[in-house]
Each structure stands twice: as C-alpha cells, then as structure tokens.
Write a structure and sequence with these properties.
Strand content: 15-25%
CATH superfamily of the largest domain: Type I PLP-dependent aspartate aminotransferase-like (Major domain)
Strand order of the largest sheet: 1-7-6-5-4-2-3
Number of domains: 2
Structural class: alpha/beta
CATH topology of the largest domain: Aspartate Aminotransferase, domain 2
Number of helices: 13
Order of helices and strands: HHEHEHEHEHEEEHHHEHEEEHEEHEH
Bound molecules: pyridoxal-5'-phosphate
CATH architecture of the largest domain: 3-Layer(aba) Sandwich
Distance between the termini: 54 Å
CATH class of the largest domain: Alpha Beta
Largest sheet: 7 strands, mixed
Radius of gyration: 21 Å
Shape: globular
Helix content: 25-40%
Number of strands: 14
Length: about 400
C-alpha cells in the first residue's frame, strides 16, 4: 500500500521508517556516536558528524515530517523537512534565528509562558526583533497589526492555558503571499487532530516533551516544514547553532509516537467526559474545553480539530474553582491520582496552577488581561480509567 495513503493510525508506526540495512532490526538502533569513519577525505556514507547527521535522529525527524504532512523527498531534504531539537524552546529559538534584526513578529497573546519569556526577555534584546501580541481569536485585529516589517506570525492553538483557538485557514487567507512566515505551535493538538501545513502554514513546531513523546520522560522539540527552501534554511541554523536532540532522546520520542494515535483518542474521549462532568459541578465556576459547545470558538474546533472526521477537543481542560486561591490550592493538594506538576501530555494525569507555576513569568497585569485568574487550574487528562479520574476530582472538590 502507498505510504502516503495510509491512515494516521498506520502512519504513526511506519511513516518515514526503513529497516536497518545491516541487521534488519525493526526498530532503529540508537547510534551513540559523535563521528563516522571516512574511507578517504570527503568520501563517506553521508554521515560525518552527529550534530549534522545521525540515523536515529533522522528516523524521528522523517516520521514526524510525514505525520505533519511534509511531502519533501530525501533529495530535497535528508530528513524530509523534519528537525529534532533539545527542547521545544530550542525549536522556537531556531525559528526566530531565521529572521533578521529589526524584523517584526505578530504572536498570539495567550502563549506558553516560556515562549512569551523567550520573545520579550531574550530575543528582543539579543536579536533586535520586535513583537506584537494580538488576540488572534479576532482575526480583524491581525490585518491591522501587519506592517511592512512583519516577517513571522506565531500562532498557538489551542493556547496555553486559556485554550483559545485560532482559525488557521483564516490566518492563511489574510497573511499568505505577503512574504510573512506562518508558524504554528501544534503541541496541544498534535498531528492526530490538526494539520497546519495542509492549511497553508509554513512551519509547525512541537514541544515533543508533551504528547509526541507522551511518557513524561524526555524533553525535546520539533520543527517541520514542507517547503524545500525553508528546510534548507532551518537545516543551516540547526547545524550552525547546534540545538540538536541526542540519539537516545530521539529514540524515546520515536517510540512514544508509535502510540500517539491510540493515546490521543483516549485523551480526547476522557477529557470530553470529564469536562462535561465538571460543567455540572457547583464548586466549578467555569470550564473551558474546545470539545464543549460552550467554548467561545467551538465552530473553529469543529472545523480544524478532528479525529476520523469527528470533533476531537484534545486532552487539556482549564477550569476555575469557586472560592479563589485558597479553594483552588486545597483542591490541588487533595487530588490523589492527578499529580501536581508542570508539563502535560503524558500518560498520567497532571494538574497545575498557572498563576503560581507555568505562567509565573507572565506579569500579573498581563495575566489579568488574559483571564489567568487565581482560581484557574489546568488539567492534563491522562489515559487512566476515566471513572477513577472523576472520582478523584469529586473527592478533591468535596
Ligand atoms: C512545553 C511547551 C513549550 C516548550 O517546550 P519545552 O519542550 O518545555 O522546551 C512550548 N509550547 C507549548 C505549547 C508547550 O506546552
């Protein structure tokens, strides 16, 4: 069967993979080597130094490239336009390194806290880049924010932690063909649900630490492009600055991706059930979940977040516990199955308090504007028994 036509469930296991030629190993060996022997100066098997080339990293990069919809051939780019990084932040930083000092970037206003920090506290100073943060749930604001210096639009959808959605097709309609790179942080949705490249985006980014790896045991980042010229530029910075993923960690992420489809189905199914249940609880003031019809951008979710043609709202839920910081703290302390920890997207359920934990680096005024209240908690729904998870939430709310 033509690999391109395979269902996503098959692609997560086979996309971009080839049998190891020497032994026939089904899984790629972990090539723990920094360098490769040459027969004669400049005569080698395509591998010179692991910062530039590593077969285990290639196996991961080719897999995620295909899952995100890149159709680049090996001749166009050795890893089909997929690039693996030592963290999600390293992948974002590399995207900014494609730009020049003085360039202007428009970013979604509600962003992962670390992304906001990299933009405003590092790159503005070190790279001379300029950022505008815009609520892109309202696309009429996008048109007004574009200047002739705008070279990148940085989208997160769903956002962290408010789970706002951006209409990706709408962004493409406004900004395409104006010499502006369009990049989407696809960490929350994953290619199991959402395909920004297919909609006309140039770059997809992942914190592979989250759903792609899926087991809370590795920190990693990904960029994918389907454009050969852009792949060449990313490859150049990747190799020049060197924020590469190690062979061992590449193996872990690739291993995690094998079950991405299965896990995302379960995350979405349980999150939908839990969000619906939380909505009926008096001690919960507000539930934000893209799969609920009460979500402000529910129509966008229906359009761009799907598994097998059906709406899939993802595995993240944000809610406001009535009674402010004291009540939300005691709720968080009483949970037994949910672990109180930063991060998300693993097989185990996690819960966190954005104002104190992940988004402490966002200023209090900015947090207030975004709606990150003191009673706000963020749940990452794992793949445990859903009834057990609801029982845990019930006892902690009581
Ligand atoms: C975690 C996260 C990042 C940062 O990735 P790291 O792997 O922690 O460096 C970026 N974007 C989103 C949406 C995230 O959740």
């Amino acid at each position: 069967m033509n690999k391109k036509n395979q269902h996503f469930d098959s692609k997560v296991i086979h996309a971009g993979q080839s049998v190891e030629p020497v032994t026939g190993a089904v899984m790629p060996p972990i090539f723990l080597t920094s360098t490769y022997v040459q027969e004669s100066p400049g005569v080698h098997k395509g591998f010179e130094y692991t910062r530039s080339h590593n077969p285990t990293r290639y196996a991961l990069e080719r897999c995620i490239a295909r899952l995100e919809g890149s159709e680049l051939t090996e001749e166009q780019d050795a890893s089909y336009g997929g690039f693996a990084f030592s963290s999600g932040m390293a992948a974002i930083s590399t995207t900014l390194d494609l730009l020049n000092a003085g360039d202007h970037i428009i970013a979604m206003d509600d962003l992962y806290g670390g992304t906001n920090r990299l933009f405003t506290k590092v790159k503005e100073r070190s790279a001379g880049l300029q950022f505008s943060f815009v609520d892109l749930t309202n696309l009429s604001l996008l048109e007004n924010a574009i200047t002739d210096k705008t070279k990148l639009i940085w989208i997160e959808t769903p956002t962290n932690p408010m789970l706002k959605l951006v209409d990706l097709e709408g962004v493409v309609n406004i900004a395409k063909d104006r010499g502006i790179l369009l990049a989407c942080d696809n960490t929350f949705a994953t290619p199991a649900l959402q395909h920004p490249l297919d909609m006309g985006f140039d770059i997809v980014m992942h914190s592979a630490t989250k759903y792609l790896a899926g087991h809370s045991d590795v920190v990693a980042g990904i960029l994918v492009t389907g454009n050969p010229e852009l792949a060449e530029r990313i490859r150049f910075v990747h190799n020049s600055a060197g924020p590469i993923l190690s062979p061992f960690d590449s193996y872990l992420v690739l291993r995690g991706i094998k079950t991405l489809s299965l896990r995302m189905r379960r995350h979405c199914e349980s999150a939908k059930r839990i969000a619906t249940w939380l909505n009926t609880q008096e001690s919960v003031e507000l539930v934000i979940y893209p799969g609920l019809s009460s979500h402000p951008q529910f129509e966008i979710a229906e359009k761009q977040m799907q598994i097998d043609g059906e709406l899939a709202g993802g595995g993240m839920i944000t809610c406001i516990i009535a009674g402010g910081i004291e009540k939300s703290k005691s709720f968080l302390e009483k949970l037994e199955i949910f672990s109180l920890a930063e991060s998300l997207g693993g097989v185990e359920s996690l819960v966190e308090h954005p104002a104190i934990m992940t988004h402490a680096s966002v200023s209090p005024e900015n947090r207030a504007e975004l709606g990150i209240e003191d009673g706000l908690v963020r749940l990452s729904i794992g793949i445990e028994d859903c009834g057990d998870l609801i029982a845990d939430l019930e006892q902690a709310l009581a």
